[in-house]
Input
Amino acid sequence: MIEVEIVGVRIELPSNQPLVLLKEIHGERHVPIWIGTPEASAIALAQQGVVPPRPMTHDLLVDVVEALGHTIVSVNIVAVEDNIFYGQLQFDNGTTVSSRASDALALALRAKCRIWCADAVMDEAGVRITEHDEGEDTHPGPAVDEEGEMRRFREFLDDVEPEDFAG
Output
């Protein structure tokens, strides 16, 4: 498993399809996951630290898990089949529960837990977005800033189709 982080939620044009972008923490590969609008909103709100006056579904689930004396220790992106990503919740008592990837990611942000991606998923769906791809300075240096990373990813999205990730 490869530890990843959520870079952000974006809208892919011209289809107006939301996606969440994951990036491996110790590498250059990114995994774009096309998701629904409600899931995109749930992830974006959590990423921005917005706390609604009443709990949303993902907030409620984390609250229930904690009320039962447990925690979500990690979420895992375990498979991709026909461009559908499969998630899994890992609890402190060793129990795992299957989940949609988008729900798992929304829960990870709220539970403040680590996110992992199966090696096979990264190998199949991961794409490299590097400074070299843009013809910029290729000397090793500090990590790419998020704005530059998102600019390169938007340019990548101009040419990519969901079918490009089919196995």
